[in-house]
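Troubleshooting log. The previous run stalled partway through. Resubmitting the same two chains, unchanged.
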Amino acid sequence: MINTKISRRDLLKGTGILAMGALPWPQWMPRVALAPRDAPTQGDTLVCIFMRGGADGLNLVVPHGDKDYYAHRNALAIAQPKSGNADAVVDLDGFFGLHPNLKPFKDIFDAHALAIVHAAGSPDPSHSHFDAMDYMERGTPGDKAIPTGWIGRHLQAVATENQSPFRAVGMGTLLQASLRGPVSATALQSIADFHLRGDQRQVGKMQTGLAALYAGDGFIETEGQQTLQAMRDLAKIAANNYTPANGAQYPDTPFGKSLATIAQLIKSGLGVEVACADIGGWDTHVAQGTLSDGQMPALISEFANGLSAFYADMQDQMNRITLVTMSEFGRRVQENSGKGTDHGHGNVMFLMGGNILGGKVYGDWPGLANANLYGPGDLAITTDFRDVLGEIVKNRLGNSNLAAVFPSYTKFNFHNITKTGVNFAPSISGSTPIKIPKLGTAGVR
Amino acid sequence: MDTTRREFLQDLAFAAALVGLPSWATELDETPPAEMMSFTSYGTNPWQWKPASAIGKPNFFVTVLNRLGYGPRPGDVERVQKIGVDAYVDQQLHPETIDDSALEQRLAKDYPTLTMGPGELRTKYPFPTKDQKQQNKNNNNNQNPLGALGIGKSQPGPEEVVMQLEQATVLRAVMSQRQLFESLVEFWSDHFNIYIRKDDNLYLKTIDDRDVIRKHALGKFSDLLLASAQSPAMLTYLDNRENTKGVANENYAREIMELHSLGVDGGYTQKDVAELARAFTGWQVTPPPLKAKQNLNFTNAGKFIYNARQHDDGAKTILGINLASGGGMNDALKIIDALAHHPSTAKFIARKLVKRYVSDTPPDALVERAAATFKQTDGDLRAVLGTILHSDEFNTSNFLKIKRPYDYTISAARAVNAQMDDARALAIAVRLMGQGLFFHVTPDGYPDLGSAWINTDGLLGRWNLAMLYGSGKVPRTQIDLSGAMKSAAVKTVGDAVNFWVDYILHREIPSDDRAKIIATISSGGEGAAFDATTLSVLVSLILASPHFQYR
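Second attempt completed without errors. Output:
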């Protein structure tokens, strides 16, 4: 619905950032413990990326082995893999392949730290962004009776001593709906900007006065206490001098900035258990584009470069991080007359981390022949998104109370994409620094 | 109103003090800040919040002024008290009877774009050429962190058109006597949300604000819905101008039912969406597109036109209504009429209004009564609001709403009786706090729930803004705190706290809170002589306190 073609392109053009190559996760690498936390959680830190607008999963992870893909897609088709053709799909397993701008994912995939689930999504038939996002973030497709989000309920369900305001963080000015719940989460635009400003004596008095006036038991007061605590914590971090590890370069975009901030927060040992970030602009009704033209290619590059930079930056801690991406729905299989795609159904999810059984595309492929399409011509869903998230919650976050997190869903069908059991090896000090191979500069197209 | 370099630097310093310069920001022409570009979603159910148990006694007159408009200016509470709430409500329901000529003269003088047509706007405020862009960049020291916010362009271009509309809106909210009308304009601008930065809308939103939202804000809902459907800005925003025979674009067809009339559970199907999209084919905007970078003849551009050649004239069935082939433009007109009179629409609009004016958790009984009024009066919005604002539920709704960033910014300006040379700083403040006017990307409008806005980030912005008001550091804005206190014989710290709590909040706060404020500004207790240098902290603290967050 929103054509961000020009702005997105300008955004990337203006930055001139070259993509960092993806960095494989060496299986032999010793596990290094994190900096001490406020209170250790039971499991991995969860990073949750929401691709707002309904990303076209069929052009992100292309089913190039399905001839019907090419029957439906003409102007928007991505060519079958062919050696030497940089404009073709980057093959993964002979059937699926990555959009050329997702090439940075290939090495992570090969290092078994990236898994893909295709034909996944929310079973609710809604083609409304807000309905579909709402259902996905609540984790209750078709049911709006429960006002909390799935992550919010997870946080509520696990016993923890962690009182940090950064236990759950949402990047942006409005908190993600998935974080909604009794455990108050912190909405944050950036670390450097989070403090009171003005004459120092006045700031000191204000802070004292606010701490006193916000001591009450109401909703506003509780949020105020959290804000004051967050200011105190963030003041301890040298915000402006953050240098990502291993030469990682985040895209100079809001999404890249969000990921860098999440990385910094995790490294600072502020007790982050869950962090959410958004990347918008996927609603490509018109002029979607294929390789460099239109709305989507630059967005794919931003997405790929952001996540591969995060992977490189967090290399030492990837064994305690699980990252998952989702989008409210996929897009219509048949392209429309405006060289775009309309709202669809099934989509792709990415999982990244040291405890992901990666290097594989999971899920049953329903096929793109007309007879196999869903509703008005959409990719059918063979994996309920709760199967993927439920597995993460149980296996990686150490919370087996799935009934609390995804109420009324009982038919969990795990694909075994994640390692089971949450165990952290002790810290190994003085281990040899890991040499990170610098891969090619797959620049922004 | 070109921005001088000096004014630009003032704005820069103000923004820096408010939220800090966004360190990611780079000079990006026509690019909104990212937070506003991304899809942010929120549930339709309120996250149940509650006020503090010790909150003190409410003053319902203040609630009335906060709900109908943007809070009291000095003297307002006494005025409402004198004529009574019901009389005040009735007065506000008839804005045409309220004299606002001083403001109107000022708007006509300062913001000439408000009365222009689309072609005139595009011609008088063309896109800057490459050379001019470079010039602007140099003017802005090449390091304009606010460029991403569209702030700081000195060349009169589309950004100036946008800025004039934002400033006029802010100025009206702060200054207008027609407070309920301005608040309704905000309500409908959310309901028929249009992202001003999409293509032609840099120019067209100004037209939509004047000829759709303001024209029908207190009229018949059916007129409003039709005007919006034919608004070039809406046709641009939701892609209907690209919806042509053959392969329809469903975007507008879906949103007019989901968000503008029936509501998502209002009883339509995917098939209705597809068929309605066909009915809307051919509803277009006259060329050439205003976004064209070259200077064409724009005299007749940017207006609604029905293009029969692009209309899918086959038979259609929508919401059970059969439309025979050959219906032409009447296809969609019939459905718009049906939508405007649908019982789901009555309920959907009633609920949304009750949510805005009474409670985050709308009482069902009041929603039913408001919906009944809607049906009985053929969607007369004045009558529906009358039902809501004269209800028992409204009369007992103290502390049931929380200010959004815009409410907060405007109500603070009114509370301290700010006199503004222009409204740019406050427009910027609202942008930075995440509720920039006409900056919401997605068609659902900004959420009308306190729980969506009160979070760490949001509170920090409010506190910093409170400090800027309290220390008089809002650019080109006069705030005379000591002048306000002059007549009040303030001698002690206790006197000063009493005076300012009453001046800003118009009610007593719990004695504990009073003691905390006293302790913050003086170590000598309430009997100590008041030190004038603590005045700005005192005022800032009251504005930043939980008490000032309620609407």
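Takeaways: Chain A touches chain B through 95 residues (CB under 8 Å). The longest strand of chain A covers residues 114-121.
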